[in-house]
From TrEMBL:
Pfam families: SnoaL_2 (PF12680). Residues 8-108 form the SnoaL-like domain. InterPro entries: NTF2-like_dom_sf (IPR032710), SnoaL-like (IPR037401). Coiled coil: none annotated. This is Nuclear transport factor 2 family protein.
Length: 120
């Protein structure tokens, strides 16, 4: 469990990494080559699309940060966790939860769900 908890912490850190080269290096280290990220707003397959998706989210919410919204629940190479996105020290504007599937200590797939989104 503690290893998966650390991997989830690393996953959140990638979403907060604003340096493109550093972010890509972290993606390459943490995600499998054939990875997938799927939520109601985006579907990214492979590291290139994942990197572009994270960059687009950062552009949409400049200066915002992701943080865990509670404990990580993990077993058998999978984890679920709540996350929040908002200004540092402020109220979260977006809240969701993800289910991450791991393969040999790397993330293979993340399924994201959105619980709270800003009004259009």
């Amino acid at each position: 469990m503690s290893d998966l908890n650390e991997l989830v912490q690393d996953y959140i850190a990638i979403w907060n990494e604003t340096d493109p080269a550093a972010r890509r290096a972290r993606i390459d280290a943490l995600w499998t080559e054939d990875c997938a990220y799927i939520d109601p707003m985006a579907e990214a397959r492979g590291r290139d699309q994942l990197d572009a998706t994270i960059g687009a989210v950062q552009a949409q919410f400049p200066g915002f940060v992701f943080k865990l919204g509670g404990d990580v629940d993990a077993h058998h190479e999978q984890a679920r966790f709540t996350w929040e996105l908002g200004p540092e020290g402020g109220e979260a504007l977006v809240v969701g939860f993800d289910v991450a599937i791991f393969d040999g200590g790397r993330i293979r797939t993340v399924y994201g769900f959105l619980d709270k989104v800003p009004a259009a």
